[in-house]
Amino acid sequence: MPTFAYSGRTRGGQNVSGERLADSMDAAVAALRRDQIMVTKIDPVKAKVEKAAAGPRRSKKVPAKNLAIFVRQFSVMIDAGLPLVQCLDILGKQEPDKNFSQVILATRAEVESGASLADAMRKYPGSFDPLFTNMIAAGEAGGILDTILKRLATYIEKNVKLRGQVKSAMIYPVAVIVIAGLVVTVILWKVIPTFASLFSGLGADLPLPTRVVMWLSDALVKYIVFIIPALVGIAWLVRTYYATESGRRVIDGTLLKAPVLGTILRKVAVARFCRTLSTLLSSGVPILDGLDITARTAGNAIIEDAVLKTRASIERGETVSAPLRETKVFPSMVVQMINVGETTGALDAMLAKIADFYEEEVDTAVAGLLTLLEPIMIAFLGVIVGGIVIAMYLPIFSLISKLT
User: Residues with Cβ < 8 Å from 262, sequence gap 6 or more?
Assistant: First the structure.
């Protein structure tokens, strides 16, 4: 039933205001007249809610850490017995991210007007994804919202940790390569031309390594205004290609086949799949809906295709493990453990154990990769810079030997 905010006067001339539930505005006015209130202004509260909902930028994604803190605090407040609207009001006002704060307060307004929490959150897909809203809906339906929020908080925190591990594996080599590129660029752009003018003045015969370095320096100085836009253009083309369905499959498939990084990414994908599906199933979400949500949150097109094929097979009456084995994406150990979980009727618990195991595997693999990469990257940087220095000193050594 809609709510109407009104202002008016009593028979004694006193000004009053408030809200009244009614089927329509006319019914609200009639009810107020029966209460001997002459209405001077009346508006549906729903219009105010829509205005509040239009404020936040719905497409902006909320940082995972902010979302994890919000859910953890939300679960504690609900568990303590605070009313839902009051929880959202407190969390919205104390949220440091302005966009997310607006979303929480708009969600509070929707709930206050009679919408369920899940339906209110579905209006902001940039902040609350399908996994989030489906679990909230299951919690509301089962009367276990506090338990569901705790599971969501644990899931988001583990997901944040998993992403951090992948970034740790990527940041070090990328940082070293970028630094090496900057050092080499500065040497070729500023230092080598000085040596080139010195050698041309001496009229010395230059060895091949020196000529190659000087040619690279000349090319960089002449074409630097074209090289930078070309690099930006290549990055844009790769990003545009990855945005397409075929491009995403090609790049994600190539990454999974990469020598060391591919193994880590595959373990991350398995851990995320198992953790997401376990969380959904333990929260009461049907398995078909759970697989659909898991596929959309997989983060890799190859894994997503495998999960969707599994979902289609389950719709035809098959088990989970059989179609997963046919995709040849998941390790055989994972498929066997899922089969055991199905047989014993504890699929959600088995998936959680697999996720725990593979998250530990990712920890170990990332630590090993960083240990291996450190000497390799240092040697790489030393060979590049040292090679340029030696190439420029070769003519000097030759001249000194001739003088002696």
Answer: 255, 256
- Cα distance between residue 239 and residue 110, in whole Å: 37
* Three-class SS state of 67: helix
Closest CA relative to residue 268, chosen from 314, 331, 323, 319: 331
Same domain, 116 and 260: no
pTM: 0.64
- Residue 103 CB coordination number (10 Å): 28
Domain total for the chain?
Answer: 3
Report the CATH number at residue 104. 1.20.81.30
Burial of 194 (0-12, 13-18, 19+ CB in 10 A): exposed
Query: Do 141 and 130 meet the contact criterion of CB atoms below 8 Å apart?
Result: no
Cβ-in-10-Å burial (0-12, 13-18, 19+) of 287 comes to middle
Question: What is residue 48's predicted lDDT score, i.e. its pLDDT?
Answer: 43
Distance CA 33, CA 21 (A): 14
Q: Which domain holds residue 172?
A: 155-404
CA distance 364 to 263: 12
Cα separation, 10 vs 17, in Å, equals 10
Q: 63 and 27 share a domain? A: no
Q: Where are the beta strands (DSSP E) in 143-289?
A: none
Helix (H, G, I), strand (E, B) or coil at 75: helix
Q: How far apart are CA 76 and CA 96, in angstroms?
A: 19
Output the pLDDT for position 234: 92
> Which residue ranges of the chain lie beneath pLDDT 70?
1, 46-60, 201-204, 399, 401-404
CA distances from 362 to 262, 293, 356, 371 (A): 12, 23, 10, 14
What is the total residue count of the chain? Answer: 404
CB contact set of 276 (below 8 Å; sequence gap of 6+): 131, 155, 290, 293, 294, 297
Could you say which DSSP state residue 144 is in? -
